[in-house]
Model the fold of this input.
Amino acid sequence: MQNNRGKIINRERARQQIDFSGLRFGNITPTDIDYPPIAGAIEYKNKAYIFMEFKYENAKMAFGQRLFHERHTDDLEYRKPTITIIASHNTHDCNENIDAANASVREYRYKRKWTLISARLKITVRKMIELFLGNLGIGSEDFRCLCVAAANNEDTEEKTAWD
Done:
């Protein structure tokens, strides 16, 4: 693997586009970041940062990429609440866009720790963002209630970081 450092491993996947249209929050939508390893980002009303990374099915995140996400998220957390969401998609055809809103969250980084999410929960990126914003008190009351329910869910590998 060392010989592949810095090389594009899967050129078709690297060109695949991500459709963020399902992640509109009022007049706020994610921007794509043409700087790997971040696929998308939201700066929400000067109150929170949300970063997203999308992996095809069960593709692993490289060590350096994971380390970047950890340090980036943890550093920004000192300024305002920050979450990095790692999601899986199953859009096999590289000519089709990845539906960011409906990708399945498999883990997230928040408050200096990673939390794995069971696939059985079927938490989409959209729902995770709504839960995150609701927990901060900047989403609707419904989402704050969902957040409490998610924090107590036994299908997460470790207790969620909402507390």
Notes: The mean pLDDT is 79.
